[in-house]
Specification:
The structure is a homodimer. By secondary structure, chain A is α/β, with parallel strands linked by helices. Helix content of chain A is about 40%, strand content about 20%. A six-stranded parallel β-sheet of chain A has the order 1-4-3-2-6-7, sandwiched between helices. In chain A, strands 8-9-10 form a three-stranded antiparallel β-sheet, covered by helices on one side. In chain A, helix 2 links the parallel strand 2 and strand 3.
């Protein structure tokens, strides 16, 4: 496993692989790797000739009052997880390498970035979009892997790749959950034991909604989900939305495949989760 | 010479060339090809193993009241010019091929797109930025060629390519002028004989400013340029700006390399021109 720090070095190595006819897989992460990331790495190891994991805490996707500075950066542990999984290259650029002071360009998908999480994190998705386009160009990825926990992010990237004619395939992996049902996230590290316990109720409430999807109407489903979530102590709901799987538009009675997506605060920690519901 | 209509076909062919180790040159145009475009094609033919000319009148870079519909589309003549110059591939996609109805993604460089021409054409440069990123991904261009008449466009694309880590080199070619000094442009086709004659004064006024650049201060230079332009009959000035060659910031007395850029209307035709001034 080789750790690469500069754009030019990775670009050179990746281009050589591309010319050799190697299939390149990219797993873009912000580090603090967990079983969710591991599932993406394993999928790439299975599909691709070369697996690149990028670890970069991207300031462009944090708002001014968000947790950029305190976001966990357990580098040694992250590299161990990559090594254990036979990752070929870990790309760990500095901030200045990715966003030098005179960086001016942004990729935007207004229709997808100003809804759901974007309503509460107005610059988040343009930060995600921009860094992912950069990483695709640096890594020459044939396949890029994203977890379904960040469902909006997955759809955003799928859209960008299609719209901007990248040849990359965007591949999703299912949400990995703890035994309790809690969706695994790097931000779970912020939760106290008690908060973790109560957070596990979120996924149970989503499962109940899934059960009701075929029989109940969507406004009932949304209302009961909000009501149930509000009974969790110390919770503050950012949103509960039922959207079309295809394009994140609001689902209606004719929607065959929908996603119930929620974002909530448990104390000082923001958690997201979702469940896919099909008729 | 092969004319290609679909994204997937060009992408397939270009990727094959890339893997063969061929240097690919891209000349992005909106057609109505003239000697300016021809100079770009000739430069690519000299530098590259493969030359691709794209011809696409990009609606995303026209404002709602601009000349998208009446923009000249002399396809037969354009193809003849390409053939004469031994272009390898002409990419002529349909609107739906480049921007299907559900297109949602834009590339933006706010700092560079809201000044100069951008003040008068607020969505123009995001249209340019987005289509160029698409064309780079479709053509796998190693080199992309742009004329210096659209100086702001050239700097915008240089910035995008650097910021988004495209490996493409952005190459500029000097403005090609008619004998009268008038910068050659597809939009010159709109000018009447009389308008053409008076338009030739623009470049003469720029040349006079160049002569004065070393000795006069910038506000004097700008003021006299405005005054001289205003004496041209039927003229309406959009802007006269003196900017830093490097980053389009306003030039000051310490600027060693500046660009005097103007946009004017002659009757119903908008013309741009500029001159590089060095100390």
């Amino acid at each position: 496993m080789k750790v690469i720090k500069t754009v030019s070095e990775l670009q050179k190595i990746a281009f050589k692989h591309l010319k050799n006819g190697d299939e390149i897989g990219l797993v873009p992460t912000m580090g603090a790797l967990h079983q969710g990331h591991e599932s993406l790495i394993l999928k790439s190891k299975k599909n691709d000739d070369v697996t690149i994991v990028s670890i970069f805490v991207n300031p462009a996707q944090f708002g001014p009052n968000e947790d950029y500075l305190k976001y966990p950066r357990p580098t040694t542990k992250d590299l161990q997880l990559c090594k254990k999984n036979h990752v070929d290259y870990v790309f760990m650029p500095t901030l200045n390498e990715m966003f030098p002071n005179n960086h001016k360009t942004f990729v935007e998908v207004p229709d997808l970035q100003n809804i759901m999480c974007g309503k509460f994190r107005p610059t988040h998705f343009r930060g995600v979009a921009t860094v992912v386009v950069k990483l695709l160009n640096i890594s020459y990825a044939c396949n890029a892997y994203f977890g379904m926990k960040d469902f909006q992010q997955f759809k955003l990237i799928e859209t960008i790749v299609k719209d901007l004619n990248f040849k990359t395939k965007v591949i999703s992996c299912p949400i990995v959950r703890e035994k309790s049902g809690l969706a695994i996230s790097s931000r779970n590290l912020y939760l106290s034991t008690q908060e973790k316990e109560i957070s596990s109720k979120i996924s149970k409430i989503l499962k109940e909604a899934l059960r009701d999807f075929k029989n109940k109407n969507l406004s009932y489903l949304k209302k009961t989900t909000v009501n149930k979530l509000n009974k969790i102590p110390h919770i503050k709901i950012d949103y509960v939305d039922i959207v079309n799987f295809k394009d994140l538009s609001f689902a209606d009675k004719d929607t065959k495949k929908a996603v119930l997506a929620v974002a909530v605060w448990i104390g000082k920690t923001r958690l997201i989760d979702n469940i896919i519901m099909t008729k």
